[in-house]
Design brief:
Number of domains: 3
Bound molecules: flavin-adenine dinucleotide
CATH topology of the largest domain: FAD/NAD(P)-binding domain
Distance between the termini: 69 Å
Structural class: alpha/beta
Length: 468
């Protein structure tokens, strides 16, 4: 029987990063993945394919609506080849997942294909696709089995017309009217993809704003921009039934006044979050504790109640984000190797890859109020930047919140072109506990979108933004 220092179950961004870091630290490592391609949700049906479709649909929208502003004209029609768009997305996924195979080989990590299940706390049985099994010994195991799309109890997902994000990434046609349940990150990104490609899109959200985990200023601005793009919103609506009749899907919801509202479409995308996935692991056999949200319980070393079994990523508490899973992957490998790593969960950025992009780190204004922390706020609109006018991307703003006494930056919230990349500056500054004045005094190349960060920092420092 093969024996390993560490066996990782699941090859998503948590699992494969954990495996690489273990190997780098000299630990004999194996990884088990039930699907034929590695990379988990993120590479196969999450981050990467959704960004490929967001980019393709953004090019299409630009060509249709904005090229003429730049003096670029077409004689004929601009046609959409949706099949090619999906094929390109598949190719991007294929290249990216193959990259993980390469990294496993390069780091001498033994990769097994099949479902991993605990036999006891030091033995794992892998059931392969042909039902044959392999047993391996594991001094330590890292559970990185991720998550699956969530639904509502009364919804029957037929995966044809009533679908999750997984199916929405591989549709065969552009919906005429896509009714989306849930105005969170996945719903907003995919809603924008199909709106750009010509579908009518209605987002039904239970809360009174979209992107409810973000700072209110960003939710408001994003909704304003998406409304301009003709996406429809039904906020404070509680969905109570979803039914399909042939090609028609009917969604019924109660509004704030408890009146029933009916939405009809040809597709309904259920994007109400994700739930941890532990099926098939046989955790009962070893007594690993799972809480009532389905998450594996871990301590601050990401160790379960069984001392040689750890868990990371979407399957435990915290933000369901690829980069959070990656940080935990490295962290847990270093813990197993006897090091003392650290993760600052307050500094895990949150991003929505709509256009304009939305990105946020640290505390929101609402959180600071709830926690009775006195703060200063500085804001700068993207439209006041030379760079924004040059590209035509004038929507959005940067908002910086800093401690009233010390000026330490407590939160940075950005909506605008390339916000997903801009937020890295804020994470760096906050990691080094910079003040708003520190950020304001750093030279920012001109003309860039990043100048809005400097200007918002100036506004937070002394209300002395230059260009407004
Ligand atoms: P996963 O990526 O879910 O991987 C778990 C793996 O474990 C899977 O491959 C699964 O097959 C395998 N597995 C499960 N059980 C077993 C078993 N018993 N034996 C063997 N293998 C098993 N996050 C971002 O940060 N940025 C984004 O832009 C982003 N976009 C997203 C878009 C969409 C449409 C979706 C759905 C998600 C998106 N996410 C994004 C979230 C991100 O994909 C997840 O947070 C991330 O994949 C979690 O990583 P993980 O390693 O914990 O689990």
């Amino acid at each position: 029987m093969d024996s390993f220092d560490v066996v990782v179950i699941g090859s998503g961004p948590g699992g494969y990063v954990a495996a690489i870091r273990c190997a780098q630290l000299g630990l004999k490592t194996a990884i088990i993945e039930k699907y034929t391609t590695k990379g988990g949700t993120c590479l196969n049906v999450g981050c990467i394919p959704s960004k490929a479709l967001l980019d393709s649909s953004h090019h299409y929208e630009e060509a249709q609506k904005h090229f003429k502003d730049h003096g670029i004209e077409f004689d004929g029609e601009i046609n959409l080849n949706f099949k090619q768009m999906i094929e390109r997305k598949n190719k991007v996924v294929d290249q990216t997942t193959k990259g993980i195979d390469f990294l496993m080989d390069k780091n001498d990590i033994k990769a097994y294909e099949g479902v991993g299940a605990f036999k006891d706390k030091t033995h794992i049985i892998i059931t392969h696709n042909d039902d044959k099994t392999t047993e391996i010994e594991a001094k330590n195991t890292i559970i990185a089995t991720g998550s699956k799309p969530n639904s509502l109890p009364f919804i029957e997902l037929d995966k044809e017309r009533i679908i999750t994000s997984t199916e929405a990434l591989s549709l065969k046609e552009i919906p005429k009217h896509m009714v989306m349940i849930g105005g969170g990150v996945i719903g907003l990104e995919l809603g924008q993809v199909y709106k750009r490609l010509g579908a009518d899109v209605t987002v039904i959200e239970y809360m009174d704003r979209i992107a409810p985990s973000m700072d209110k200023a960003l939710s408001k601005e994003l909704m304003k921009v998406m409304k301009k793009q003709k996406v429809k919103f039904a906020l404070s609506h509680k969905v109570k039934s979803v039914e399909r009749d042939g090609d028609k899907v009917t969604v019924k919801a109660d509004n704030k006044k408890d009146e029933e509202v009916t939405f009809e479409g040809d597709y309904c995308l259920v994007s109400v979050g994700r739930k941890p996935f532990t099926k098939g692991l046989n955790t009962e056999e070893v007594g690993v504790k799972i809480n009532d949200k389905g998450q594996i319980e871990v301590n601050d070393k990401l160790q379960t109640n069984v001392d040689n079994i750890y868990a990371i990523g979407d399957v435990i508490k915290g933000a369901m984000l690829a980069h959070k899973a990656e940080e935990e992957g490295s962290f847990v490998a270093e813990v197993i190797a006897g090091q003392k790593p650290h993760i600052d969960y307050n500094l895990i950025p949150n991003v929505i890859y709509t256009w304009p992009e939305v990105a946020s780190v640290g505390k929101t204004e609402e959180q600071l109020k709830d926690e009775n922390i006195e703060y200063k706020s500085g804001q700068f609109p993207m439209r006041a930047l030379g760079r924004s006018r040059a590209s035509g991307d004038i929507d959005g703003l940067v908002k910086i919140l800093s401690d009233k006494e010390t000026d330490e930056v407590l939160g940075v919230h950005i909506i605008g072109a390339r916000a997903a990349d801009l937020i890295a500056e804020a994470v760096t500054a906050m990691e080094f506990r910079a003040s708003a004045e520190d950020m304001a005094r750093m030279s920012h190349a001109h003309p860039t979108y990043a100048e809005a960060v400097k200007e918002a920092a100036l506004a937070a420092t002394e209300d002395r933004a230059i260009h407004i």
